[in-house]
Amino acid sequence: MYFGLSEDQLMLQDSVGRYLEGASELEEVRKFVDGDGALAETLHTGLEELGVPFVLLPEAQGGLGMGVLEASLISEALGRHVSPSAFTAAYGMAVIGLREAGDEDWLSQIAAGSARMGVGLTEAIGARDNAGLSLSGDTVSGRASFVMGADGATHFLLTTSDGQGGDQMIVVERGAKGVSETELTTIDRTRTVLTLDLDNAPVAVVAGNNHAEAQRKMIDAGRVLLAADTLGAAAMMLEKAVDYSKTRDQFNRPIASFQAVKHMCAEMAAKLEPCRSMVWYAAYAQDNVPEEASLMACLAKSHVSEVGKFVARTSTEVHGGMGFTDLLGLHYWFKRIGANRQLLGGPEKLRAEAAELQGWG
Question: What does the alpha-carbon distance between residue 81 and residue 180 come to, in Å, rounded to a whole number?
């Protein structure tokens, strides 16, 4: 049996990668981080021309009807180029949640480009002080923290409780009465994360009754996509370390010839390469092996987070003092990996969830 990417998947991966290589250059990322938000919209337009926003949308709503594996290939490319894209939240998690809930209206609006969703699910994963939302009729009040995919968002897909122990997914329009937002200062400045404070804000409840299951699948898919993003970022840091070691001379010879540097690069490669198949299988499981989907999402994100941290640290060490400067820009990948590690649950929490899923809790 052959385990690998199909020709279409390879073509998708190559097309997105080649586009980002030119459009998401390091200097453009620097401008975005310094406050020029043009790159996010430029990338959105370019990726839209490639069909990226439509990958997970059902064919009935004008989408491509692909799966989480294809979406993970896109996320890997975005992480590789530290691209300021809201893909994970807006066209990954949000589409999966609405699709599983059965809300065809919102899916059609996303396909038409009239709605772009930011996603706030932190309170569904773990309670935060002074956070949480409560419904009262057709309005909602409270706080949603760590809302992802804020760049270009027109609406926010959030989670709340109906007061009777039932999970609810709701949509709030950005800029509506009673909706105020505060940008969170995280270590990763390549993506925008918000805190939303809602005071009797008008709300639309997502159609369907299986909100709890839809939330579960959103979280699982989001974790896989973040793991893929980390995989791409770590792979780029490894490549940069190898390239730098070949050109940096000490004692009249490249540092790549030093055994200690060889070992550092070899260890990074040995730890990182198995992560690729792990992420691929976790992504495949979301659509094809539902009984393993949650477990594999937890295992993939927790493991890749740890490996990503190791690669980020070791790559910086290979670069020596230059690795800590803005000239090379390594810190963009370093911080992206660090942010991915904690979003939707850190390794410790995910391992605890995995233990419970296997009856070990």
Answer: 31
